[in-house]
Specification:
It is built from 14 helices and 13 strands. The protein has about 375 residues and is an alpha/beta fold. It folds into 2 domains: about 180 residues, Rossmann fold (3-Layer(aba) Sandwich), CATH 3.40.50; about 160 residues, Glycogen Phosphorylase B (Rossmann fold, 3-Layer(aba) Sandwich). Helix 6 links the parallel strand 6 and strand 7. Helix 4 packs antiparallel against helix 5 and helix 10 crosses helix 13. The two termini are about 15 Å apart.
Length: about 375
Amino acid sequence: MIVHSEYPIGEARVRRQAEAACRAGWQVDVLALATDGSPRRELVSGVRVCRTAVRRMRRMSRWGLVSEYGRFWLDAAAFCSRARGYRTVVVANPPDFLVFAALAQRLRGASIILDVHDLMTDLFAVRLGKNMDSADMRMLVALERLSLRFADRLMTVHEPYRREVARRAGGQRDAAVVMNSADPQLFVRRAAAPETPKVIGYHGSIFERYGVFDVLHAFADISQRFPEAELWMLGDGDARPVLESEARALGIAERCRFSPGFVSAEEIADLLPSFTVGVVPNRPNVLNRFALSTKLFEYVAVGVPVVCVRLETLAAHFGPDELLFYEPASVHDLAAKLSVCLQQPRDMDTMADRAAEHYRRDYSWQRNSEAFLHEIDA
C-alpha cells in the first residue's frame, strides 16, 4: 500500500484497510511519508511500515507541493522497482499519478488498485485557487484520466464519487465503493452523555476549506450564553496557528483546546465520548460537494450528536431526523444550531440514536471491510 501521508496517524482509511488485510491473512507493507520520532522501518499492528525520507511540509507554494509529490513519487518508484513478491499494490491518492510509481510491480505481475480518496483536480483547484479552464488544470485533468485508466481496478469512498470517477475515466471503468467507516475496535457506543463542561468538538485536518473558522466564530457568538461550554479542536493543518491566534483575538482562547498536532485514532476514540456535540463544518466548494467526512461516521458510531453542514453528499447519507443540519457557510445558523444542541440534550440524544442505527445498518466498517477484501482478493 502506497500513501502520501504519515502512517499510522495521517490517513485512517489506509490504516483500517491495512489492518483488515492483515487479519484476513495478507502480508501487508505500507510505504508512507517520514514521521518525526518514528523509525524508517516499523511493525504496527501486524503491518510493516516503510517510511521514505520525504516529510510533509506545513506550508508550501505550488512548486513546493510539486517538489514534495515528485520526491515521494521517486521514492515509491524506487521501492517498487526493488521489491519482489507482491500480488497487489493499493495506491491511495492524492496524487493520482502516484499510481505510475507501481509500474515495475505491474510488469512483475502484481495487480494495481487506485483508491480515490479525493478528486485530484477538484482538490488542487481549491488548494491552489485555480480555474478549471487554466492550462495547468487542463493538464491535471488529462493526468487524472490517464491514472484512472492505468490502474487494473478502481476503488473510492462512496456512491457519488463512484459515479464521478467512472465519468472521469471516460465511462469505460467502474469503481468499487469502500466507505470511510469508523474503526469498530476503537469507536464504540458511549455509555452515557458526558457531564459538564459541555464540549463542542471538531477533529481531523485543520484547513480553512473545512470550515474550522466558521466553528470558531460560531462558538464565540454563543460563548457568553453558555459559560460552561468549551471548544475542542483536535488535529493539525495549515490553519491551526492562525486559528489559535484568532481565538486569542476573540477573547475565547482560555475556553478553546487545541491539540499540538495530529492526534492518533486511539486518542480520538478516548476523547469523543466527552463531546456534547461534534461538528462537520465543510465549506461549500467544488471539492466539498462530494465530501463525506470520516469524522461524521466516528461521531455517529460513538453516539455523539452531530451538527452538520447541509451539503449534497452529506445530506444524501443521513436525514434531518438524524443530524442537525445548518446552512452552508452561515456562521449565524451554525451558532443557532449549536445553541439548540446545548439547550436540548435529550432531543439531540434521540437524533444520535437514530443516526447510530442507520450507520450500523448501512455504513459499518464490517460491511465495508468485506468490500475491501473482495477487491484485493479479486
